[in-house]
Amino acid sequence: MADSERLSAPGCWAACTSYWRTRKGLLLFAEIILCLVILICFSTSTSAYSSLSVIEMVLAAVFFVIYMCDLQTRTPFVNWPWSDFFRTLIAAILYLITSIFVLVQGGSSSKITAGVLGLIATLLFGYDAYFTFPLRQQRHTAAPTDPTDGPV
Predict the structure, then answer these.
(1) What does the pLDDT read at residue 9?
(2) What is the pLDDT confidence band of residue 138, given thresholds at 50, 70 and 90?
(3) Which of 24, 109, 130, 148 measures 20 to 30 Å from 7, CA to CA?
């Protein structure tokens, strides 16, 4: 998943720059930036919906650091692929609900912009959830079978 695309990097800065070039690194970086922009749009109009953006931005940053520093291999007691999948799935659902509610409610242009960006965030988090789904990434190989009529 996250480390299959990673380049070998000896230092911390090299690990950071090599990780954000992977698909998962780009998705997490885009999620952080999009949540920050949505937070700014909500903050200028109303503070009622900004907590979702703050929580998702912090969680995306935490997962970015975990995958960048390769901490998911050092902490085996947490199932990181499933945790990341549920984080992105719940974020997509919550952004969809919040964005529809904000767009139906109407209001200032920054609130409508935040609603539209929330729909874009729904697509981004849904895309991330689709490619993070752990069962999708398992490769099944056919088991070797012996002939049924006995040894030859």
Answers:
(1) 44
(2) low
(3) 130
